[in-house]
Amino acid sequence: MNALNNSTAIPAGASKFDASQLVPNAVLGMPDLIAVMRASKPTIYAWVSAQLLTPPVKFGAKSSAWPASEVNAILAARIAGKTDDEIRSLVIELTEARKRLV
User: Fold this and answer.
1) What is the C-alpha to C-alpha distance for residues 69 and 24, in angstroms, rounded to an integer?
2) What phi and psi values does residue 39 have, to the nearest 5 degrees?
3) What Rg, from alpha-carbon coordinates, does the chain have?
4) Measured between alpha carbons, how far is 93 from 75 in angstroms, rounded to an integer?
């Protein structure tokens, strides 16, 4: 059987792959975030301080990561040409939404 005819193949016209579709609650550690955002660690933390990126979720004393869904939302806003003020509003909204999860 041809792999392109396999039922697990992505159908023509399907949307692009999004990791959060596979793992809805996926998180990105610093190395992954650096790769996705194409920024250095100091720049990442400067964005967090400036409220241009959500703060990481702490999982322990030495473990933290960013929800992939939040990173995707912020990247989508950047791609759409949103201003820094609009990004800050989005970051506040995303951070507040964490409190309503569970």
Assistant:
1) 8
2) -140, 160
3) 16
4) 15
Tell how far CA 21 is from the center of its chain: 12
**Residues 72/37, Cβ–Cβ less than 8 Å:** no
The string of pLDDT tens digits covering residues 31-82 is 999 999 999 999 999 999 999 999 999 999 999 999 999 999 999 999 999 9
In a domain, 36, yes or no: yes
3-state secondary structure of 47: helix
Instruction: Check if the beta carbon of residue 65 is closer than 8 Å to that of residue 59.
Output: yes
In whole angstroms, what is the distance from residue 44 CA to residue 102 CA? 27
**For the domain that residue 51 is a member of, what is the CATH number?**
1.10.1660
> Is residue 79 one of the residues assigned to a domain?
yes
